[in-house]
Design brief:
single chain, about 425 residues, alpha+beta, Double Stranded RNA Binding Domain, hpI Integrase, Chain A, four-stranded antiparallel beta sheet, three-stranded antiparallel beta sheet, 17 helices
Length: about 425
């Protein structure tokens, strides 16, 4: 390991010629750092070190830092110094690198999470598997936002600063896209629409936090001992004061629905929107409602056997009963679909509201309003009219309200009256004549 008279550089590496045997050119400033030249002419930066605290009794090990010209002399020198420093601290940088290479990437961790980790981590359903739709949405957010930005990183390399940059990128729309792709399962074209923004960033960072919490419980397999999302300086919760509509805004919404329907917009979309406003149900609870088993007009109830909170029974106000009664009376007897709002093509339910909703809120001059805003509006109307939280929870199908009802022995007759009181001003504004 005789030192060279010249310091290793890109110029020296460029001029180095192969010989009949592989050899190493050593650096004059950092003797353990060298350039290995193979008989084929390929050149690699190397560093030799003694791991641990055994001194000269420890075996000498060699680590390849990278190939020239992919790795420059300057960068290789920095890596060599870092490796020697690690060795002096008692570590073995080559073994650590091998361990890192075996460590799963964030993308692989999401696949692992899909296989074994998609269960509820908090609340009354803690430990239970996610509902299929919740699982689908969660994994879609992770793969649409996390994988493009962090997917190739090793799970233990992601730090709090990376999480902050990730949230900023999602908020600014870096992962947004709108394109047609071929579904690998059906081999049919489907449209992928991914939107960024503040709300999307908050949701997906909570999803990523759940992934890391799961990885920590399998630290022997994953090497994860801490959750970088927990201490990251990012916002993880939604607004406590959510957007709600005034009576005047509900009137504008109703007028927009009537106008667009008169102009030829699919009435399935407009009636789904009316259902959202009059019931406070979640988006797909109305869009995917079934004609039989889920609508009980005689008792004025919606009965969902499988929601995010399990089985849920929702009392209906008079206007909602009238809406569903009219829709059921107009069902084509030849229509064999189980859904009240069947898809235009295929066997699923109608999903065109995603495309039409932007037109609705633009016509009604309600920027930023979402279908969930209608759910929150119904709850806010109930609160402002003095209804108890128990009754509001029964109307909205909240899990805690349903649990409380078990002990309070609340039946659905007074809850239906509460639903009627809560929804009547919304119905008057939304469905006004003329």
């Amino acid at each position: 390991m005789a030192p060279m008279s010249k310091r290793l550089s890109n110029f020296v590496a460029e001029k180095a010629s192969p010989a009949s045997k592989r050899y190493v050119l050593w650096d004059s400033d950092l003797p353990a750092f060298g350039l290995r030249i193979a008989t084929t002419g390929s050149r690699s930066w190397v560093v030799y070190y003694r791991p641990g605290e055994g001194g000269r009794s420890a075996p000498v090990r060699m680590m390849v830092l990278g190939r020239y010209p992919v790795l420059s002399a300057t960068d290789a020198r920095k890596l060599a110094k870092n490796a020697l420093a690690e060795a002096r601290r008692g570590n073995d940088p080559a073994l650590e690198r091998k361990r890192k290479r075996r460590e799963m990437t964030v993308s692989e961790a999401i696949d692992f999470y899909e296989e074994e980790g998609c269960y509820v981590q908090r609340g009354v359903r803690q430990g239970e598997p996610m509902k299929p739709l919740t699982k689908t949405y969660t994994l879609a957010r992770l793969r649409h936002h996390v994988v493009p930005l962090l997917g190739n990183r090793r799970v233990t390399e992601v730090e709090e600063g990376d999480i902050r940059s990730f949230v900023t990128d999602v908020t600014n729309g870096k992962t947004a896209r709108d394109e047609w792709v071929i579904d690998p399962q059906t081999q049919k074209r489907k449209r992928i629409i991914v939107r960024g923004g503040d709300g999307a960033a908050r949701k997906v960072v909570r999803d990523l936090s759940a992934v890391y919490s799961f990885l920590k419980t399998h630290k022997r397999k994953t090497g994860v001992t801490q959750n970088p999302v927990e201490d990251a300086p990012v916002r993880k919760t939604d607004n406590k004061r959510e957007r709600r509509l005034s009576v005047e805004e509900v009137r504008r919404l109703g007028a927009a629905l009537d106008e667009l329907e008169a102009e030829g917009v699919n009435s399935k979309a407009t009636n789904i929107c009316r259902g959202w406003a009059l019931t406070g149900c979640r988006r797909n609870e109305i869009a995917g409602i079934k004609k039989e088993g889920e609508i009980d007009l005689q008792r004025g109830l919606l009965i969902f056997d499988d929601t995010k909170n399990g089985r849920s029974v929702r009392p209906l106000g008079a206007a909602a009963v009238a809406l569903f009664q009219a829709l059921l009376s107009n069902v084509d007897p030849k229509d064999k679909s189980p859904y009240l709002f069947p898809a235009e093509r295929g066997k699923g339910f109608y999903s065109g509201t995603k495309r039409i909703w932007p037109e609705i809120i633009e016509r009604a001059k309600l920027p930023g309003v979402t279908p969930h805003t209608l759910r929150h509006t119904l709850g806010a109307f109930g609160g402002s009219r003095g209804e108890s939280l128990l009754m509001i929870g029964a109307v909205l199908g909240h899990a805690n309200a349903r649990s409380t009802a078990i002990y309070a022995h609340v039946d659905y007759d007074p809850a239906r009256l509460a639903a009627d009181r809560i929804t009547s001003p919304i119905a008057e504004a939304l469905l006004r004549e003329g």
